[in-house]
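Model it.
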Amino acid sequence: MSATVPFNALKPAEDAADVRAAIDRVLASGWFILGPEVEAFEAEFAAASRVPHAVGVGTGTDAITLILRALDIGAGDEVITPPLSAAYSALAVMMAGARPVFADIDPERLTLDPRATEAAITARTRAIMPVHLYGQAADMRPLEAIAQQHNLAIVEDAAQAHLATADGRPVGTIGVAAATSFYPTKNLGAAGDGGAVLTRDAQLAARVKRLRNGGQATRYRHDEFGVNSRLDEMQAAILRARLKYLAGWTAKRRSIAARYRSALNGAGVTVPREFDAGHVYHLFPVLTDARDRFQAHMKERGIETLIHYPVPIPRQPALQSASPAMCPIADRVCAQVVSLPMYPGLSDPAVAAVAEAASTFGG
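Modeled.
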């Protein structure tokens, strides 16, 4: 049967008129790459994220790679990162020429475990890259202490954490820089690909701007080996239109999460803890040893679910050359995790339907 509650809905809704006006504005301008829309969005997104600098780039993956390159992290260097995330986190490290080293996750928070991180440090380690997963910030205080003790950079993967905070501190202000994504499913999504680098470091921001545009210091003068990774004017304009809705959308996500948590208390699935009030609920995962049965149970009731993520990154064929260490907690979680519908456009009846269906699963 077709889902009566789809996993996501990406068509413009309350923002439709603003998105249409943004598109028309760019078409009328005739300026499509690195123009006033990108500059304005960078300023507006930096302000919303409470950092001095935002640099728009082609994808969230590129944002990670360009941060590492701006820090001169590359061949022969290692970056510690978690095994539970989209594989692009680790692939971005490889794109910079460095080696991703996987440290297992905390079994409750599901983000990078500080103890496993410290155990993974070698003489080649240059950075720690926590992923703020599913909208919840990683356990940053101990990771900061470890980084300081070992003189390592912290690069935050904040692709799933627009406007999230860690102990009241905005993500993107904790490490040397953060990478975020505007893939259409993200809390702030474009109508295509896009990403940004957030940082307090003016020099790092300036270098990322050069690197994203072929390493050009001025037009046709390429001072260093750069790439072509530019957020285009159309996507920037759409993101500007949607940015003013983001705080309200985040509040709606938190409201939906609270209703799910209440309904699933004592149910046959485990709901990961909310460790921080700054959680922005990009996704709402639950854990069960009977995932196939749970998904079938939800489908029978018209509820679409997805898995984020079914394969730990170290077990991906593309990462075999990295000689990854085993991460048994991530292995277990990847076999249990399943995501419920979570987006601001969910109606009250739809939220009730999802909550009721999940709460009646017997485990």
